[in-house]
Amino acid sequence: MSNLNTTDKGFKNFNRHDVFTRDMHNTAWAIKRVVETAEYDNTGSFMGPVFNKVMGLFDGYLYNNLIQDVAAVGCNEQTINDLTEIVQIIEARIWSEGETQTPIF
Questions:
Q1: Distance CA 27, CA 48 (A)
Q2: In the prediction, which pLDDT does 44 show?
Q3: 69 lies in a domain?
């Protein structure tokens, strides 16, 4: 559960290059694959809204209720736990440094 206030814009920005380690990137990529399959299997939506929210992590967007949305499309407990760990790390960085932007190279 998020300790950050919900914003009107529906997400918080963070600099993925500063926050993500290689392991976090690999884990987020694995989460993306599980969400893509679960969302399609359970809702019939290919590259649907929850998938897009997960993909936002790679662009520095932490969407509100991401963990709950991933759980709602039927992802397994390990995926939810992995996502929770990533979200907690991102939220801790936002809490300590404020929102930042992922630069476009």
A1: 20
A2: 87
A3: yes
What domain range is 65 assigned to? 11-97
* 87-97 pLDDT tens trace: 999 999 999 99
Which residue is it, tokens 């963070």? 14
20 in a structural domain: yes
Is the predicted pLDDT of residue 60 greater than 80, yes or no? Answer: yes
Tell me the CA distances in angstroms from 94 to 2, 3, 32, 36, 78, one per residue in order. 12, 11, 22, 27, 24
As a whole number of angstroms, the distance between CA 23 and CA 100 comes to: 21
Is 52 within a domain? yes
Number of domains in the chain: 1
Q: Which residues contact 60 (CB under 8 A, 6 or more apart)?
A: 13, 14, 15, 16, 100, 101, 102
* Cβ-based neighbours of 10, under 8 Å, separated by 6 or more: 63, 64
CA dihedral 3, 42, 47, 54 (to 10 degrees): 20
Predicted confidence at residue 3, as pLDDT, reads 45
Residue 81 within any structural domain of the chain: yes
